[in-house]
Amino acid sequence: MKKTITILLLLSLGLPLLHSLPSAQAAAAGSSDFSITAERAEQLLDPLMEEEIRKGHIHGTAVVVTQGERILFSKGYGYADVDNKRPVDPAETLMRVGSITKTVTATAAMQLVEQGKLTLHDDINRFLTGYNVPVFGKNPITLHHLLTHTAGLDETVYEINALSRSSQLSAEAFLRQYFQDQSPVREPGEQYAYSNAGLGLVGNLIEQNSVADLNAYMSKHVFTPLDMPSANLTVPENNPQLAKSYTYTNGHYEEVPYTFLSIPGAGGLSVTPNEFAHFMIAQLNDGRYQGKSILKPSTIETMHEQQFAEHPDLPGMGYGFYRGRLAGGIETLSHTGDVDGFHARMLLIPAKRLGILVVSNAVIEGTTPMGQKIEETLTGLIAGPEKTGRALPYTREQLQPYEGTYSISVAPKRGWGKWLYFLGGKDFEVTAADGRLILAGVFPDGTGERKELSYVPIAEGLFQEEGGGGKLWFEQGDHGWHMTIPQEITMEERPGLLHRPVFLLAVYAGSGLLFIALLAVWLVRYVVRLFRRTKKPVSMHITAITLLMSIFLVVQMVYGNAEITYGYPGWFTWGISSLPLAAVLIAVHLLWRDGIRPGKKNGAALGRCALAAGCIAYTAFLFYWNMLSVHAW
């Protein structure tokens, strides 16, 4: 999940790229100095995997390496099913690859582009029936925008998952409701923001323009030609070969239940690792696998080319691929995937015709992902010396404009889940020094550790990590500076106190606890007066207001926050979420009776009026953050 703001869109059409070489040239380039063999890969990976399993960091992992038109190395480590001691077998074990599905969906969409059933740069509403995608600004969303995560769509949270196949929404039903509740939030084509909804929409475009269910289309036009009979976009829950997945918490592993994605084109693929290798081979061999072609060579080239970049000196995005470089400047194509405890990484090196797939069935928060460690181990054999941009001689004074604290919080701007903004966020602190910037924060590398990294300027607004390949891109917008970690996140300068997540969380939780405390006090007062048999009444208005607000807050915290990805039943959306509105009606009556209606006012009356006003103000807060049955927007 990633939020971005205005960044530079450039298409580098004139730069010759390594991956655009004809396959014969690529083969020649790869055969002369290629240093990975099956034996060498096993020597490197076996001790690494044994150490990780010994530490208890993973349960099972499959590693597959391809070169040219064959599988060079394939091995499983650990267990696919711990209780039954069933080992991981890359040829037999079904594993979920999460968002790597997006690359397969992009491939299928490009097949329809070849056939003229879809186009890359026309309004996608031309190809949709049953619903329309709203327009933000003047320019429509295109397939190009969807495939590069630049469509400007809002974050997808609500109802994206289902706990059973019977409760799973179709992609069309999900997207129709999504666009009704959450229209786009920025101009298409201007900035990168990772989007499940975008690739889910691509999958539905395929369905609507091929007159076939997405899984059926994939089976006929992608999986069968590539000899991938195990591949499926629905969870094969009754298949004994499907691996189980686990989370590690407080020293214990817990099995993760399977969920069913409403937009399977964004992350629903299950497949054996060896069969997915056939897809990687086709991508590295002009769209062909064992004599069968799924795309034209020119289309494969288009998918691999730079289609969007935050800065012209960065590799940028292809269609369905993240472009990058190894040390030494060797270009790569990659994608990762996370779903229900599974973590997958795919890396392609076109110049070497090399593919690496790693899939694990356990992810440990706060550690470097296993796939990343394996990639670094294998690519270290061929990467060569680190190539960095030439640092520009900037002084501390010249770098001071970039200083500040930059913040990111991943949450929808509209619809259910808008309140996730104040349930979490990250701050990054930028400090200028002579010739470099110091960036401190928790980086999106999976370790969860706070680090300080040094970056040197290599172009106007562009910085490269000293001793590493990381980049930073700064751009000044209408409301201050933006900082982008390319292909990851874009951050704004930290807002004022009243707009910070920590302050909003304090308002939400603190005010809620106040209502609960007042209810407890009122109940105690009622019981005390009951036993004393005093005739002095307890305000039923206050009791009703605090009771309604307390019920809402407890259910919201216990149920609403946890179940948002599965959607809410009517009793919650129209029942529980309407309780604050009912409390407001009582508060308005209380204000009229004790504050507006003529008559003598005492301290107790003024106190009741203050509580009623607080109820109205807090409900307005909940309304703005879309926590009620009626949303602000």
From TrEMBL:
InterPro entries: AmpC-like, Beta-lactam-related, Beta-lactam/transpept-like. Residues 44-363 form the Beta-lactamase-related domain. Residues 1-26 form the signal peptide. Keywords: Membrane, Signal, Transmembrane, Transmembrane helix. The chain crosses the membrane at residues 502-528, 540-559, 571-592, 604-625. Pfam families: Beta-lactamase (PF00144). PANTHER family: BETA-LACTAMASE-RELATED DOMAIN-CONTAINING PROTEIN (PTHR46825:SF9), D-ALANYL-D-ALANINE-CARBOXYPEPTIDASE/ENDOPEPTIDASE AMPH (PTHR46825). This is Beta-lactamase family protein. The lineage of its organism: Bacteria, Bacillati, Bacillota, Bacilli, Bacillales.
